[in-house]
Amino acid sequence: MAKAVTLRMLDRADREVMKLPRADIGAVYEFMHKFRRNPHNPGLRLKQLSGDARLWSARVNQDYRALLLHIADQDYLLVAIRHRKEVYDNLDRYAYRINRVTGGIEVIDLAPVGDSIVGRVVPPAAPAALSPESPVPPAGPVTAPPTSPTSPTPLFAAFSDAQLVELGVAEPLLPQIRELASETALLELVDRAPQLTADVLLSLYDGRSYDEVLTHVTEPVRETKPVDLDDYRAAVSRPATQVSSDDEALRAMLAESFARWQIFLHPAQRALVEKSYQGPARVGGGPGTGKTIVALHRVAHLVRKLPPGTDKPILLTTFNRNLAADLRTRLIALGGQELVARVDIVNIDRLASRVVAEAKAGVGKRIVDDNRAPELWQDFLLEIGETEWDAEFLAAEWTQVILGQVLSSRSDYFRARRPGRGRALSRAQRDQVWQLTERFTKWLDDQGKWTWRQVAERAARLEMDRAARNEGLPPEDSGGFLRHRYRHIVVDEAQDLSAAHWKMLRAMVAPGPDDLFLVGDTHQRIYDNHVTLGSLGIHIRGRSARLTLSYRTTRQILAAALEIMSGETYDDLDGGAEDLAGYRSLLSGERPTFRGASSWRDERELIVEQVAAWGNPTDGSVAIAVPTREMVGEVVARLDAAGIPAVEIGPDGPSRTDGVHVGTMHRFKGLEYQRIIIAGVSDGLVPAQSIDRYRHTDPKRYQRERQRYRSLLFVAATRARDSLAVFWNGRPSPFLAERLVNPVADR
To answer: Which of 164, 262, 611, 632 is deepest in the core (most CB within 10 A)?
Structure first.
């Protein structure tokens, strides 16, 4: 029996296919279908090309030809689609190599960079002198090549060939890299260079050290097993060779219902998606690095490993209900209804509410928002005549410590750690707080009210009791879900969940391989939830990874956003610190605009002026973020007066997709726009002047509030894809560094 033919498509070829007319895209799919049935069909005209023994061509239709790498036996890789007149031109322009670091197949474009490099055109590069068998020399001191007094210094003169190769740079490009002397030339080269080469060069150009790039860029994608530079069969199966071989994925691509991310993953992302973990795992990373994409693909990967069934053994959850709805939409696009049918997709508070409702707890109670807790405490203290304790302090102690840690008794509260709470409490004071919280809870009960934090605490207790009650029962008695609701749990925006949420989730899944998979970024924490996962029974140490490549925003916007975050230390959800070292973008664009005004009235005029400068777009591609709801209304009114349609972003997102979207910075979590204005970034608004009352009375609370406002500004800034404008009136926010506010001072 003849061996089945395997034909896969390299992601580089996918990009070329998507640029073709729709009819020709369909022809590519039909070609691949025919090729798999019989590659020697006379109509396909399969033939070997000169120059590279592995390179073959085949007929797609009258106008286009497919370039194929013959991997082994009946195994082929589609690497390019060319017009028939171009197939035989410049066959030596492209090299097809296995990267010695990642072990993946790379297509290397050897065409010379233009006259921008050192004033001349570089001839096509020959393969580097390092042979496949040559060991990589140890990195050592580098002597820069001699230059004439008038020649600009090459950009990478400080790094040896051995260092660049060890970082994963494609060796055939080394001669051209040695000649690069301007950002223009660099961007031209990386635009068509293999992924890892582009990542490494831009990181070095941005000032990262060799060790930083090795740690944050190279190591996450390094193949753990020895790489044979001649074994293409092994190479094509590695995550670093980004391919699609599935007819369903290709058909979806033709229907244009898939974005490219839904078919292909960066090698670092794919490795995290497909890895088997011996316990809870966490993936961090800055905005736009694809954390949510990884979470969705992780869900799809786990579903594919399930035995047949009609249950929902996988939970996909997040904090915000809008994000939960978005996750459902994207997961359907990724894998269809059949995949989603095995996944329970629900936001964390609705999940807790479901658990409580099943137990018939809280019947008849009305749930009030957690941000009303201080107001409710104030009313309660006024009613009982208590003046010694501050309502805001008690509200925070109740929600973060007592409810957050699911403390069921006074003795539990006496023993509880209170990380991040600032003010120390004596045993007698804890006793007073406990008695007040008991009275406050009864006061709420009498009014038929409870908060979402109370719902989460009750749900956590119910799930913990359920697991304890069924301890020792064999899981096969109920398909594995007698003691635990789920087999796997995936959490998006993990930094937003409270301790009670985590206790509930921990009790919902049996501890073991691939139980919990978390993605998030503590730099984007905009709610006051600070937890240490290890203390809650979720041990991620040794199973944490970080994504550093941003796919959303430009390098210029990213640089400004990183300036906003400078000077603060953020936790890693497990008692350690986390930073944004190595965070980078391959996209380039215009520098962000920073402008001040003398008053809020004048600042609104700047907003109208900027929107007009962007061509008054009304297609929903422009948004404006401000600190307060009152400012939202005033901006909307000014835009309407200028004849610019404006749409407010509410709790469920913008009510319409057209117009200019306006909302508070809180509303921008999970959204992105082509162009964004952040207005009102003034001292006293970002951060709010009201937090000053904590500066001396509760320094830790003051620090947390500053971090929260800084995170809000960071989130808003990183929602912009192409253009960012930041305005203020009076004094700018202290989060805006002098070199952002006054670029001239930085020169």
So the answer is: 164
Among 75, 73, 68, CA closest to 10:
68
Secondary-structure class of domain 555-746 per CATH:
alpha beta
Stated as kind and residue range, the H or E segment containing 174 is: helix 174-179
Pairing of strands 75-83, 64-72: antiparallel
Q: Is pLDDT of 10 > 90? A: no
Other residues' Cβ atoms within 10 Å of the Cβ of residue 164: 25
Residue-wise pLDDT tens digits, 289-339: 889 999 999 999 999 999 998 899 999 999 887 788 888 988 988 888 899
> How much is the pLDDT for 263?
53
* Cis before 132 (ω within 30): no
Helix 291-304 / helix 321-340 crossing angle, nearest 10 deg: 30
Separation between Cα atoms, residue 600 and residue 542, nearest integer Å: 49
> Any idea which residue has 């809180």 for tokens?
666
Tell me the three-class secondary structure of 296-327, residue by residue: HHHHHHHHHCCCCCCCCCEEEECCCHHHHHHH
Cα–Cα nearest to 32, from 64, 66, 3, 1: 66
CATH fold group of domain 6-96+234-244 = YaeB-like fold (3.30.2310)
C-alpha span between 436 and 377 (Å, rounded): 10
The CATH number corresponding to 266-355+458-547 among 3.40.50.300, 3.40.50.150, 3.40.190.10, 3.10.129.10 equals 3.40.50.300
The structural domains of the chain, with segments of one domain joined by +, span 6-96+234-244, 266-355+458-547, 366-447, 555-746
User: Cα–Cα distance between 542 and 562 in angstroms, integer?
Assistant: 27
Domains 266-355+458-547 and 555-746 in one fold? yes
Q: What is the pTM of this model?
A: 0.74
Using a pLDDT cut of 70, give the percent of the chain over it. Answer: 85
688-716, pLDDT tens digit by residue? 998 888 887 778 778 888 888 988 898 89
Model pLDDT for residues 167-205, shown as the tens digit of each residue: 999 999 999 999 999 888 998 898 889 889 998 998 898
Contacts of 227 (CB under 8 A, 6+ apart): 98, 99, 100, 101, 103, 235
